[in-house]
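Fold this sequence, please.
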Amino acid sequence: MSQNFVRSARIGAAFAGLTLVFAIVVGAPLGMVLLVLGGAAILLAVPGVVLRWTLPAEHRAAAGGGAGWPWTLPLRKIARSRTVGGLSLLVKDVEGGEHRCVAQGEWAPAAPASGVVVEVYGRRDKTGDVRVRRLAEVDTGDVVTPRLPGGARLGRAAGFLAVALWGGAALALLALSILPR
């Protein structure tokens, strides 16, 4: 989970809190507000549990604790402490310049052999390294892509889900507040 997910989840939580106050102030039906809050509380526990399960063992103990950890974990920086091995290789362009290419995860189906001519698809990051999305071997046409481990993909999906659920709860509360009764 990147820092952007943590920020997005915090913004969604703040927006949900503000719309809850707004719903109460404008007199939204209390039963519907409680229904939305209860549903959101149940659904928001799922990404927290999934995020904690996908954390490395040394971070899992620090992530738990407290009665509200399933709901607060997506909002905390520890949620992005998942480490994924980085792959690095040097690629020479046709003019002889060397470029450091990095990827996260493992090569699928297999890493290209040394000395093979490849086309690199990706983009440069702030450090000047090329973040590889895929490599294509020129001679054979085989495509090699970096794949994140299952736990990292599941953690990323849980991060997206947490942001979507906070936003959905906020929108539901806002709809209860402004729709005619």
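DSSP finds five helices and six strands in the chain. The radius of gyration is 22 Å.
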